[in-house]
Amino acid sequence: AKVIDGELRKKGKLRISRRESIVGRGTIVNLQQNKQNVDKVQDEGEFGTVIESEFQPSPGDMLECIETSTE
Mean of the per-residue pLDDT values for the chain? Predict the structure, then answer.
């Protein structure tokens, strides 16, 4: 997988989109970059991930990180 814009963080919430439709939601359990466990992956970084979700992502799905703020 590859980050297109922004960053993904370990334990971050995400939504899974397929063909512009949201098909599931989940949490990032683990991130790896260059076969090393990392806490975040930034712009243009390739990565592997373990996701906790009721829906299994498929190749070509888009993972969108959801960040909420109480400010």
Answer: 89
